[in-house]
Design a protein that fits this description.
single chain, mainly alpha, Helix Hairpins, 5 helices, about 70% helix, flat
Length: about 110
């Protein structure tokens, strides 16, 4: 997946519909929360086991909601000047420091 290309496509989609004035980081973040809630709703009242073995219709719905969340995140990053790939790489490094893997029992 080419993140920059996807951001350009999302920008063009919004421009073609004259949505640009409404797509502020604040509004996009609010829309993201709504979509995240729709994602969570798919799993509401399911057991852990049921959540990992969704039927075909639920799996398709899950993919749509994941796409919505991702597209809003990419638009927030685009409009805020955040390089997503760099931010993810940096956060992975920080998480590795904050949460080091336990020593392997075979290393001793």
């Amino acid at each position: 997946m080419d993140i920059v290309d996807l951001q350009l496509r999302l920008r063009a989609f919004a421009q073609a519909r004259e949505w640009e004035p409404f797509l502020t980081p604040k509004n996009l973040a609010m829309a993201l929360v709504v979509e995240a809630a729709e994602l969570v709703e798919i799993f509401q009242w399911k057991t852990a086991e049921e959540s990992i073995s969704l039927d075909a219709a639920s799996q398709e719905h899950l993919g749509e909601e994941i796409a919505d969340v991702l597209m809003y995140l990419l638009q927030i990053a685009d409009r805020s000047g955040v390089d997503v790939a760099s931010a993810v790489e940096r956060k992975l490094r920080l998480n590795a420091i904050k949460y080091p893997a336990p020593p392997s029992p075979h290393t001793a």
